[in-house]
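Contributing new complexes? Match this layout with 2-oxoglutaric acid.
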Amino acid sequence: MTLPRLDRSFPLAAETIDYFAEHGHCCVRGLADAAECAAYLPEIQAGVDRWHPTPAPLADRDTYGKAFLQAVALRKIRESIAGFTDAPRFAEVAARLLGVDGVRLYHDQALFKEAGGGRTPWHQDQAYWPLDTPDTITMWMPLLDVHPDVGSMIFVDGSHRDGDVEAGEISNASDDAITASITERDRALTTHGPLRAGDATFHRGWTSHSAGPNPTDRVRPVMTIIWFADGARVTEPTGPQQRFDLEAWLGGRNPGEIADSSENPLLWPVG
Ligand SMILES: O=C(O)CCC(=O)C(=O)O
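Output block (do not edit by hand):
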């Protein structure tokens, strides 16, 4: 089967760019259409099945494990998925939201919240990333319509400006730390509500976020892509989680070097 090419440029509204700059997150409706999502879903599902051939019962998992099945680097284990992850349409939107000339891929990952799956604890993604730039961004796109009882992510408005609130990796502890920082800083929360297949939210690496549980009997299949601004350098890892990311995602580049290995292709502008 020929998969759709996702290279058509998307008309991003100036208000969306302004909203993102102010809040550290935004919603872009209709970035892909239902047919495009339907074409890639079986490929991405196959990637998830490859990572999780026999998932443990939800009751036997910790909070993070209950939140979703996580399947990383899908474009590497299934070539067809590169058509989605490397799509110029998505990378151009990422670059325009960040206000940078170019973006490189950090990695892709599917996050399938299973029927009965738990809530996603509050966390900051960039705590994991040994990069010297705050110009990092994640696209979060459901491949099927999201049920209203599940909804999309919940963001702490403006939290990208706080930088690292030292909540650490995603866990009950990060949930507690960010809950406390929301109260201390008197921050407002925003969710963009239920999304259609192909709508997407974008958030900066330091934007604190969480997601509700899945009380329905249907999986919430979401694909994510993470990019960073071209020109960023690798930093000394601050702990085991960043050491893991340094080895996994930066193609052998060392602290102090530009993060420009072949593992981190320039996806916008298109060469
Ligand atoms: O899908 C979720 O429940 C959470 C996703 C998330 O934390 C992320 O994409 O950074």
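Reviewers usually confirm one structural detail per submission. For this one: The mean pLDDT is 97.
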